[in-house]
Design brief:
Blueprint lengths: L1 H13 L7 E11 L2 E10 L2 E8 L2 E8 L3 E7 L2 E6 L4 E6 L3 H21 L13 H4 L8 H15 L7 E11 L4 E10 L2 E6 L6 E5 L3 E7 L9 E6 L4 E5 L4 H14 L31 H21 L9 H9 L3 H12 L1 H7 L3 H10 L4 H9 L13 H17 L9 H11 L2 H15 L9 H17 L1 H10 L2 H10 L8 H14 L1 H14 L1 H6 L3 H13 L1 E2 L16 E2 H12 L5 H29 L9 H15 L30 H4 L10 E2 H11 L10 H9 L6 E2 L1 H12 L3 H10 L8 H10 L2 H9 L86 H8 L19 H14 L13 E2 H15 L4 H16 L65 E2 L1 H9 L2 H7 L5 H13 L7
Parallel strand pairs: 15-16
Antiparallel strand pairs: 1-2, 1-7, 2-3, 3-4, 5-6, 6-7, 8-9, 8-14, 9-10, 10-11, 12-13, 13-14, 17-18, 19-20
Helix pairs in contact: 2-23, 6-7, 7-18, 8-14, 9-14, 10-12, 11-12, 12-13, 12-14, 13-14, 15-16, 15-17, 15-23, 18-19, 19-22, 23-24, 24-38, 29-36, 34-37, 35-36
């Protein structure tokens, strides 16, 4: 009940959607300016929130976990810092350690989600493993259970979907030394595991599907009481005693056993391809061992067989320090495949998915993708010194493994270095086992390593850097000065040293890696640097240091084994056995997987945010056409766009979500390229495209025109700026638009405001308002003025950005100056029942005339283009990307996009807003549209003083005086845009000096001219002749002091951004 109350308070205080799940809450003090505020810390899946109400004042804020860059804990204090350098300190009296671990884990989930799916950075409980964890009756918060499950899976190398149900204290009997060891039994839906209290003393993994019986037994009041005896299908017996809650554990085991389902190979589609699984290549291509090496291998195998006899064999062997010592000494070839599969956890995935590899191989063979092309290029570069990969058997097996994995995990696909690692697996393992080992490396042991940015490897570079600073501080400072730490380690991590150390020696490193994970790589890397510390300190250049390390690594040799004589180094530096033994002796106690995970969490935050910072700095440096904002303002704009796009309240659920193991994707078409988006040329600035929702938010938060509420100027501006009509605008277009609004160039701002109220950009409410003020005949006549001579030649307007039926890309237009036979654009304003759905599409009243159409559609974006159109004029001057040039003869064909061309002409004026474009090119404005324009102006200025009212009256009189202007019968002025030789001079603000008001020239005749009398015969209604020119409007508006001051004042976008961020943190609801 208390949790439900807190959930309701959480939603109420922070305006969170129902999808945002509250994980836990803690009573705490938030300290700011040395003043503590008692309240509650709320932790949800995506936010860290705080609320306090003291002395009649509420203090609240919400921070996304994805924007946190630093988390620290000291006693009961928790310290958090965000990407914009905001700092928060919380004093959590009770459960401080739990709160800290929970914040760390939620931040980790947010960062991983951001890495795996940047377009959907919100974690959704319904699509993650949390949903499975939430089905338990445990009172522990779901995410805390998931955190414990993750640690459980990592330690015992279990599948990613395994959820820890609980643990109990117990003792385990070990037959090899006939004694009990105290520890804990861990139980999940498919495994029973044991871990001793003393680290690495004894561990055990028992798959529940192998359990034949689990019986309770009592031997009296001693160490053997409360026993459970488990017998497996392999006739192995495991004895547990001193179980703290034996009856409960026994019942749980019975319940899980009843739910166990043995995976079965399902019927799959047969493909017309002939292939057979390749056995381990070492059986065909023998290692070139000397007699002494063969004896060493036999001696090692004997020790391993003795160990199997004493400790058991297979998944459920007793895992003690003895097995660690055997692995460090090296695994014999004959058991290497078995040991690799067990300790990597690959055996569990293979058994859970029988037949999957064959299915993937055959499906991928019928596909042709970019990943396949990259695989083909790298096949012959994979371990070329080994004879197996100079033969078709090895090449074909490697191709199948890599192509199958690219299909299994399309988020990874294929990355260089995967071929090198897989080729070594194929030498010692059969083809299917090599595939599952590769899957284990990519998904569990080295997460996020093999993607387009090798993020995981860069994170571990940061971890290594910090470990060097802890253990080798003098060397760290020197390497930092040389700037080479990142250069030396990337290839070490990606190929597990295979690309820098001879393969005979690297095998022992891989043996340790499958047992200890990344910990082995870090220990060996540190030992290599420690051995070379004195020589490295003498290096004065990074190249010299790199050469020193390269020579040393190439000289590491294996005196007990050689795959091929070609692998033997010519110059020897150190044996691999000495390297591994000394690395374990020196670092195994100080470096644990828990410590590595803590450092990974820290550097994951730093790495992801550094990606964003580097990307934004690169965009700013290359942003040549910026005339409105400083570099700092551009960075602030990029940051706020990124933050707004990552706003967790915009839930966009994807098919793949964080927390799920990669699943098989079955393409419906063999030609589908799952990595097409990664392979296509990509511009960094593409990450900062804005859809209409984001644009509208930023317009009302940052623009000085946000005061205008009668008319939605945001929608008009977006439609004008969206040149290609695809529902998004680029960063350059956005800064150009916002730059005009925030600048002090009063004439250009007034010109833009005027353009936004011309008919091609009218919104539905404006059209309806105009329609109420006129009869149907008058509205119809005005609409007809925007059509060509033949109504049938008119095309529907571009869709509104708020039209949910809009199909992105459907309005992309050919910009080539050649003939285009593409059919006319479909009418996207109609649904399947021919009903209007878009706000931009308006049906006008019927006209009761003969030889005229009955209904005029799309008042929002239509114009009269006339009889001729100079294509080169528009193309050369405006370079508009959205003009669809069809086949031109003496006039447009019936597929001409007249509505688009009218908008395109307005966009020319927008593109050249800071130049002296002739205002005579801009159409005159009618009274009905002028009313909306003046309303917008007064709202932007924020007052309607006497001077402003007088200016309004003057313009009304001017409009009456211009009523007699004769219309131009040639091309509509929308399409007559030119760049005249203007003699106007600009002042220091770039504002041109206005000439006296003069009547419009013949080149600027109104697009609202009266229709030919032959077209309106029988009509008694006459069109309103009232009209003003843009010169009239600008000159009169600037004669008003309040308008001149408002439009000549520069708006600080940086201040607006800071205020917006502050309001976001405080959960202040916007008023628009």
């Amino acid at each position: 009940e208390g949790a439900d109350v807190k959930l309701a308070e959480f939603r109420q205080h922070f305006q969170m959607p129902n999808e945002e799940s509250l994980v836990n809450y803690y009573s705490c003090n938030y300290v700011k300016n040395k003043i503590p505020r008692q309240g509650y810390l709320y932790l949800s899946l995506n936010h860290l929130c705080f609320y306090s109400y003291m002395l009649g004042k509420a203090t609240k804020f919400a921070i996304r976990f994805s924007e946190i860059v630093e988390i620290k804990k000291s006693h009961h204090w928790i310290y958090v810092r965000t990407a914009n350098d905001m700092q928060y300190r919380f004093a959590v009296i009770f459960n401080a350690e739990e709160a800290y671990r929970l914040i760390e884990h939620l931040n980790k989930l947010a960062m991983k989600q951001l890495i795996q799916d940047p377009d959907s950075p919100v974690i959704d409980q319904k699509k993650t493993s949390f949903q499975k964890a939430s089905k338990s009756n445990s009172k522990t918060p779901v995410v805390l259970r998931e955190l414990k499950s993750e640690e459980y899976r990592m330690f015992f190398r279990l599948p990613l979907d395994e959820i820890l149900d609980g643990r109990v204290k117990a003792n385990l009997w070990t037959p090899h030394n006939k004694r009990y060891y105290a520890g804990n039994i861990f139980l999940s839906n498919n495994f029973l595991c044991f871990r001793s209290d003393t680290r690495n003393l004894v561990n055990l993994v028992i798959p529940l599907k192998h359990i034949h019986s689990a019986e309770k037994k009592d031997d009296g009041p001693n160490r053997s009481e409360n026993q459970i005896i488990i017998t497996t299908s392999q006739n192995a017996t495991f004895q547990f005693a001193q179980i703290s809650d034996r009856d409960f554990l026994s019942q749980k085991i019975s319940d899980f056993l009843a739910q166990i389902k043995t995976p079965k190979t399902t019927e799959r589609q047969k493909y017309d391809i002939s292939w057979s699984k390749q056995v381990a290549l070492m059986n065909t291509f023998k290692a070139e061992l000397t007699e002494e090496m063969i004896k060493t291998q036999e001696a090692k195998l004997k020790r391993w067989n003795n160990h199997f006899h004493d400790f058991g064999r297979g998944v459920s062997m007793y895992r003690t320090t003895d097995i660690i010592n055997l692995i460090v000494d090296g695994i014999p070839d004959s058991v290497r495949q078995e040991i690799w599969m067990i300790f990597s956890g690959a055996i569990h995935e293979k058994e859970a998915h029988p037949g999957l590899y064959e299915d993937l191989v055959e499906k991928s063979a019928s596909m042709s993708t970019a990943a396949h092309e990259e695989i083909e290029r790298d096949l012959h570069r994979s371990f070329p010194e080994h004879p197996a990969f100079q033969h078709l058997d090895g090449i074909n097996a490697l191709r199948r493994v890599l192509q199958a994995y690219a299909l299994r995990n399309p988020q990874v696909g294929y990355c260089q270095a995967m071929n090198i690692v897989s080729s070594v697996f194929l030498i010692f393992c059969d083809e299917e086992n090599a595939f599952w080992l590769l899957a284990s490396v990519c998904e569990n042991l080295l997460p996020d390593y093999y993607n387009d940015k090798v993020v995981g490897a860069q994170i571990d570079q940061g971890v290594l850097n910090e470990l060097i600073s802890e253990h080798l501080p003098n060397l760290h400072s020197h390497l930092e000065d040389l700037g080479m730490i990142k250069h030396i380690s990337l290839s070490w991590f990606l190929t597990i040293f295979l690309s820098v150390i001879p393969c005979d020696s690297t095998l022992h490193i891989i043996d340790c890696f499958f047992y200890d994970g990344a910990k082995a790589i870090f220990m060996i890397a540190l030992k290599i640097l420690e051995w070379n510390e004195e020589k490295l300190l003498k290096c004065r250049e990074d190249g010299e240091a790199m050469q020193l390390l390269t020579v040393f690594l190439n000289g590491i040799y294996n005196e007990d084994y050689q795959i091929s004589k070609k692998c033997v180094p010519k110059t020897r530096s150190q044996t691999i056995h000495t390297l591994i033994h000394e690395a374990y002796a020196r670092f195994t106690q100080s470096i644990s997987m828990q410590r590595i995970e803590e450092l990974r969490n820290k550097h994951r935050r730093l790495t992801v945010h550094q990606f964003d910072a580097d990307n934004e700095n690169s965009i700013v440096r290359n942003f040549k056409e910026n005339v409105y904002f400083s570099h700092e303002e551009l960075r602030a704009l990029l940051a706020i766009i990124r933050e707004e796009k990552l706003n967790a309240k915009k839930y966009q659920h994807k098919s793949n979500h964080m927390g799920e193991s990669p699943t098989l994707v079955s393409p419906t078409h063999p030609e589908v390229d799952f990595k097409a988006q990664l392979r296509e040329p990509f511009n960094k600035v593409d990450n900062y495209k804005l859809d209409f929702d984001t644009f509208r938010v930023l317009f009302y938060e940052l623009s000085p025109w946000k005061k205008c509420r009668s008319i939605d100027l945001a929608e008009k501006l977006f439609r004008l700026t969206d040149k290609r009509g695809i529902g998004t605008i680029g960063f350059y277009q956005f800064t150009k638009t916002l730059g005009i609004l925030c600048s002090d160039k009063n004439i250009e701002k007034l010109k833009l405001l005027y353009i936004l109220h011309l008919p091609p950009l009218l919104l539905k409410p404006e059209v309806e308002k105009i329609g109420k003020e006129k009869d149907s005949t008058e509205v119809g006549i005005e609409a007809e003025d925007f059509f060509s001579d033949e109504p049938s030649e008119s095309i529907e307007a571009l869709p509104s950005p708020t039209d949910h039926n809009f199909i992105e890309g459907s309005h992309l237009m050919n910009i080539e100056g050649t003939a285009n036979t593409t059919p006319a654009t479909p009418n996207l304003s109609l649904n399947s029942q021919n009903l209007r759905t878009s706000t931009f599409y308006v049906d006008l009243p019927e006209l009761n005339t003969q030889n005229r159409f009955e209904s005029i559609d799309t008042f929002s974006d239509i114009s009269d283009l006339g009889k001729q159109f100079n294509v080169e004029t528009i193309s050369n001057i405006s370079q508009i990307s959205d003009v669809n040039i069809m086949k031109f003869e003496s006039h447009f064909s019936t597929t001409s996009s007249t509505d688009t061309k009218s908008l395109s002409s307005l966009r020319v004026l927008m593109d050249h807003a800071d130049s002296n474009l002739s205002r005579c090119s801009i159409p005159n404005m009618k009274r009905s549209h002028f009313k909306g324009l003046w309303t917008s102006l007064t709202e932007i200025v924020g007052s309607n003083d006497v001077e402003l009212k007088r200016a309004h009256e003057n313009l009304l009189e001017l409009g009456e005086s211009c009523a007699g202007m004769s219309p131009e019968e040639s091309i509509d002025s929308f399409t007559q845009i030119a760049l005249p030789n203007s003699s106007d001079e600009a002042d220091s603000n770039g504002n041109t000096t206005l000439s006296p008001i003069e009547p419009a020239s013949s080149n600027a005749s109104s697009c609202f001219a009266a229709l030919d009398q032959s077209k309106i015969s029988g009509q008694s209604a006459q069109e309103d002749k009232w009209q003003i020119t843009i010169n009239h409007f600008i000159a009169t508006a600037l004669s008003v002091a309040s308008v001149a001051e408002s439009f000549s004042t520069r708006t600080s976008v940086r201040d607006s951004i800071e205020l917006m961020q502050k309001n976001r943190r405080k959960c202040v609801l916007p008023t628009y």
